[in-house]
Batch of 4 targets.
Target 1
Amino acid sequence: MVNDRLRDRFRSDSDIDALPPRSLIKIINIPASAPVSPWWLISRRMIYALALIFVSSAVVYIDRDGYTGVVTFLDAVYYSAVSLSTTGYGDITPVTQSARLVNILVITPMRVIFLILLVGTTLSVLTEESRKTLQIRRWRRHMRNHTVVIGYGTKGRAATTALLADGVPSSQIVVVDSDPEALTHASSRGLVTVQGQATRSDVLKLAGVTRARAVVVAPNQDDTAVLITLSVREIAASATIVASVRESENSHLLRQSGADSVVVSSETAGRMLGLATVSPSVTGMMEDLLSPDEGFSVAERVVGEDEVGGNPRNLEDIVLGVVRSGVLYRVDSSEAETVEPGDRLLYIRRITGGPDTN
């Protein structure tokens, strides 16, 4: 009943996901590649234009008997430059049927392309919207097995920082938020952003939740987190959902809504504060373990072939637990006495300047 009331509270009749890509330009933002120097763009267009003139000159020179006034290759170059630039002095003209056919099928299309190159800068501005439309359509078609971070506040930013530091490409992270400033910050880090209320299933579909590998639910309010988790689980049955709540009494609602893992932010902060009063050094080590881009870090890897059959406590890495068939066993439990094929090891990794490749 609680879940139904929450769903009705945030339900929307409009379906953004059904809009055409052109209408999504202000909703979905895909970071562009590094800007290209304008001098390079001009030089590249000049090279293309010269190439067109050369090809046209070669075609005209090969069929020079079909033109009046074409004797040398320079004459052919002169005719091509005058013709492609639409100057058209008229001192050289095609007179045979074959030469005129070549002008229709070859020279005229080249003239159009040549003009496009000359006004390429203006056309680039005019076609920017079309470029973004094609980019959005291509992204929605090919995005698979990515991670969606819902909510780009303090928790969402920390989650994306951990993902990036752990080797996840920025192109494989999609941020959903309704705050334009937060999305601008996410875009500056190379992340794809979707603007909208994540409590709406159509916004979640825009972010590709139905094809996502994992979804991080990190809004500011617990009731919103419950509704988002419900909506995500409804449209993405196989995605791994990691959710955050402020109060521990709401964690069971998230699990009932479909969250695979729940992090209670208030209790975690409270424990850290308690540890800091008793043993500040322990707090420093815990913060180090939770920072994947420096010092030590808790990581997970597949067990090696030479490690199968051994005791995880005797391995070179400091192993904390064994994940088998999706279940975590502590290293001191009876189930984790022997490493089996397909197991994954939860261990302490030493950061040496780059992400782990295991």
Target 2
Amino acid sequence: MAISNSAAEDLPAKLTTQVAVCSIIAAFGGLMFGYDIGITGGVTSMDVFLKKFFPSVYVKKHHAREDNYCKFDDQLLQLFTSSLYLAAVVCCLFASMCCKRYGRKITIQLASLFFLFGVILNAAAMNLMMLIFGRILLGAGVGFANQAVPLFISEIAPNKYRGGLNVCFQLLLTVGILFANIVNYFTATHPYGWRISLAGEAIPALFLALGSLLIVETPTSLIERGYNDRGLATLQKIRGLEDVQKEYDEILNTTKLAKQIKHPFKNLMKRSSWPQLVTSALLQFFLEFSGINMIMFYAPILFQTMGFHSDASLLSAVMTGTINTVATLVAVFCVDRLGRRFLLIEAAIQMFIAQVVTGGILAAFLKSTNVLPKTYSHVVLIAICVFVSGFAWSLGPLGWLIPSEIFPLETRTAGLFCAVSMNMLFTFITAQSFLTMLCHMRAMIFFFFSGCIVMMGVYAIAILPETKGVSIDQMNDKVWKKHWLWKRCFRHDHQQSRD
């Protein structure tokens, strides 16, 4: 289902320097998140880190006869990675309420502070409990940032640039992963390399904390909280126009309707909210069960399993991180031209082929105790890069962009909370279970993830509507009420209101 670009022309707006700068500063929340994703895999493969916190894993790693697929299977080691996401699930609820009551800007500021305190605890950790508690604080920072940043960018961006600007969040996330992989490569053999790597997380957090002092609050948030004059002035400032009356009236009208909803979470249970809720939840499922986390979290571990030495595995992780960043640039320039559905459908085919090739080679040639032949190792590395590139210009950015733009104002913060918390929950599940799944399923784990990718492709072709160029305050009328399936939900609610 395609939507005409005329919707984007309804509201006059320019891409001002103010909007670009605010979007980039806010997107440093993605850099903060990405650095953590990238750093954990490298740190958990460092011998000095394993000897201090996970000695049993260190012994298994260096045991000559240890099973290739099971050498890193340890629940506490996985908890080091996954505890952040469990904390983020809980904190998303508080972030949602903070967004609505105090604004998007202060929520972003709180995210940076939580993250900074978590970095201090992790870098100075003397025992496992201190390490895990630091991860929990980092999780609070991630929960607050992932709740506020995509919403902030969607609300300040002009309609025709909304996709590209929102992808900046994912772009900086990939830069964070790449930067973390490079840091891990150079600190891997240092006696305190893991402390240096973890302390590096403070750099994006500090930038976000200082930069957030410069950004504006969104007009929607200001008007929603009763600051109409400030909202109008801010709208004029970020649009670069004096005459913004049409957009201001639209926000004002949407805000009045939203204020009639006293319990937005309860309103999410209405049938008219099902399209957005189901779409957001499924996107988060596909995003996390595409298999991307096994590469982003555990890339060095995965490459060591295939027979790469420690330094070679970290270098391979740098390579995939570079591909991830470059490919995300494709989404920045194409998402508002080609549309969301096209990118998802193309990537589903590409990612499926890459996963099947990887799984097939490992199933055929990597046994319990042998080393994967060099030629096949290189083929697998290429296949993983193909997979990462497809993810980077599709699910990676669109998993955050689409949920941030499809909810009406009355359920926007509550709806985005559900999307972010679903993402964090699924991330926790995959992060906590991947090494165990790798041990028990072996190469078949790649076929499991490829099956999820097939489901995503079918969903994108048959059910997902196109949302490019549509005002976020007109999404219900111009997208969902015209969709072949979801329009039935609005018909049911309309009948109930008449009764």
Target 3
Amino acid sequence: MNGPVIHDAHTLPADDNINPYAFSVDLDGQWFLQKGKMVAYYGKIDFQGIGLGRLDRLIAGSFHSPLHAADWVVAEGRGKMVLADRAFDVNSYDLDDGNLTVRSGNLLAFEPSLALKQSIVPGFLTLIGTGKFVAASNGPVVFMEPPLRVDPQALVGWADCPSPCHHYDHAYLRGIVGGVRAHTGLGGTSGEEHQFEFVGAGTVLLQSTERMMDAIAVGETGGTGS
């Protein structure tokens, strides 16, 4: 019977998955890293908070989401970083002069060659430019082409297409229950009642479950640089 594979700094892959739930970043310079998403690292790496002064030029060019500044750090140096998020699926994606919007809780890390901006859709961030980023999902990601309607809980993000519109089923809005919801905001929604509607060219990223990943509050988890 074969034993477990034991990695070290030399055997970890370079910018690739270790397994479906962990990703190894080959750091030689700088990456933006969401707090709580790094589980281990090799090498000489420093972690600087957003807005601490020394990295103002880098941050001014790549980070344009002040509402999320407290959730992120800059990893700087040389070594290997292992990224993971509560045993969710983790994958890397390459943007080539692209525009991709992703749920903020799913985004783990990205190269400074990409610019991060605040999306007009609450709870989402937009990456613009050319470079690599790492994101997690609750189950494998499925890539779909518009036009389509998407369960909000299943939506991971969308690339190179307009922001979605809200679509509500007619039965959801009518009757006594619909009236109560309209006036109080009470009552849960499901994909059968409320969807995001995408039109035009582009790609929509879906996770293969309706169970949305919960974002972790800043400071809830510990760990060096996280």
Target 4
Amino acid sequence: MELIDIENLPGGSAAPPVRVGKVTIAEEAIAQEMQYHPADSVADAQLKAARALVVRELLSQRAQELGLAPIVDARGVENDEAMTDLLDRELEVPEPDETACRRFFEANPQRFYAPVTFRVRHILLAAAPEDAQARDAQYHQGVELLEQLSRNPERFVEFALRHSACPSKDDGGELGWLSPGQTVPELDRALEHLPSGLHDRPLASRYGWHLVDIEERVESSPLPFEQVADRVRHTLFEQATRRALRHYLLALEETYGVEGIVLDEEAGGALMQ
């Protein structure tokens, strides 16, 4: 089964000493683990780190009880294969049926849309972000070129060959069909909201200024269930796996005992009978 991040269980607070059964998790270990759990504050990072180590220790004790391979080797390195073997053995996650998949699809139509796509050509007037003089000069050249293109749009290919710093100049500036995420973020955001046609102002990016012509635009549209059935099934299976894993960890917390931190202060071990 695919491993899922498990350090984000809700609730709880960390206060040393933290123990799992008879094993004490040292403050030094928590401090070392904090580097892997960025947070808005030191206290939050410490809490996330402590939870992660508690979860690891719970799984380690369960694997030892079952006579399975150690979750953590002698060097203190986690054994992902051993953890996967343990969870495959312990967790029972049913595959969602078609009825559940269709119900989820109908309740969340916004999650299953084809993205907007656009056929684009451009002319890149290169200028580094820190070169204010070059950016100013290139911007003004871009304005002049756009004024000429507004009167003579057929010259776009000519101008691309003469002025563009992008390799697409050899194709007349053609970038082909694009969807969100396929260009640099600053240009990507602009393209998503522009109408078809030649944009009347140069668009800025980290590379310089872009003269953009959207030749064709296809708006976002809903996808049929049959086309996204596998995505829906995967989403539901992942959700079910997260729930099963959460319940399993809470059951281990109750079985072995955890001090100094709780994985779920609202429900505790009562979720698992």
